[in-house]
Amino acid sequence: MKANAKKAVTERSDGSRTAWRIAGAAILMAAGLLRLLYLTEKPLHHDEGVNGLFLAPLFRQGFYHYDPSNYHGPTLYYFGLLTTTLNSFLYGKYGLSTFAIRLVPALFGMGIVWLVFYFRRFIGTFGSLTAALFIAVSPGFVFFSRYFIHEILFVFFTLSLVVAVMRFKETARPLYLMLASASAALLFTTKETYIITVAVLLLALLCSHLYISLRRKLAPIPAEAGSPAREMIVPPPMQSAQIIPQRRADMWLAAIALFAVLYILFYSSFLTNFPKGVYDSFRTFGYWGHTGVTQYKSPGNTYFDWLGRMQTELPSLVLGGLGVVLALYQMRSRFAVFTAFWALGMTAAYSLLPYKTPWLALNPLLPIIIMAGYFLGQWFDLGAKNQSLLPRASAVFALVVAVAISAYAAIDLSFFSYDNDAIPYSYAHTRRDFLGLVDEIESVASHNPAGKNMGITIMSPEHWPLPWYLREYPNSGYYGRIVPTSEPVIVAHQDQSGEIETKMGTLYRRFHSYELRPGVWLVLYLRRDQRP
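^ thats the sequence. predicted structure below, dont judge the formating
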């Protein structure tokens, strides 16, 4: 009898494990499809073009030096170097491609989904799968996982730091301390806003500890021995206390050394810009402190407006807010209380900061989505505990509706409406019409004896991401003003058209106008002997 019962438990456990793996694989597959399909169809954003041109000399000549006044940390470019080098190995001269550079954030975006699965032990099977699924179909996470900018890498390293610290706290294994150290170093070398993230995480840790201690003193939580409430609120045994003090000291010294090595290597461009690059990594706060309070200034409720407008992230916001309230009220899980303060802290920090861009919203959105998973997980588990179908069915229904809304918005934004400036995430994005300009230049080059070595004069002061698309045209000149020229092609700003046609109308003809981004038009002029 006992053997049969034991066998039944084992079979249920194996079935549960198999179902978990299948569900996880399906979510990762969905995340991959949304991030990798048609990755090159959308024209590069202005910032992507700038980042691409910083990568180009690193790929071609092995040269990159950190600039403390602009463009954030170096990790994006070195990971881009890996994908472009691999692409070059596979496809020769086409290594430096749009697909290769956007593959970096796409893979890290999938990595964020993968890391969330670790929280199964803290927010339950249903909760962790829900959180992972929300991130997989989140319009913001999908959209910026298809952007060659720093933010997705930054969010990934934030999450990997949290996961590694939690694993070290549970197991005291040196491996997880080293992973936490590496994650922190890569977070620091990705973007200067690490100072906000680290401050918020430390404050969330402190606030969660004080909150739990105060709540337990004021109103002890009634829980039977062995109940979920009792098991989750009591911290797991700390194995680190069993480590020999000398070994513990050596372990922490190794972690500090690993952090320092990675920090110095990346900021010094692997010692080719040492010590200047490392010095510049601290000097940058003078520049960014000024930028953070003077540029892109928006009111404090901007992120709520952006995330909730047109239902882009509204399901996650609502469910995440309920999750924060529930975690602080129930106080069943230290992790849930910590994540609630993490979500509140990130939201407050980025709301108070005057500098606001849509991709920064991913930083508070991450813990908010985890809390959304926690809320639905608690809702679902209530039905499982009471053996009631209604809570479980309603939790699944809420999940389906929320995912359907988010997935629809993600697909529409990333594949159809990516240049619709009515959508907050589409921030001054390059119009799809711009690629027609690139196509016409390539057509002219195909009929010109010089081919891609023909001269191109870019007079428009606004032209990004055009340099990325003309990266194979070495004789392109960027002047930002009207200059004398006799090159086969001129690209001008619409405001320059009258003067160009007056001064150069006998030599050039106006071919077509192309919208670069909202309110900015570029005009293509061809020398009269050139065929389009």
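The first helix runs from residue 2 to 36.
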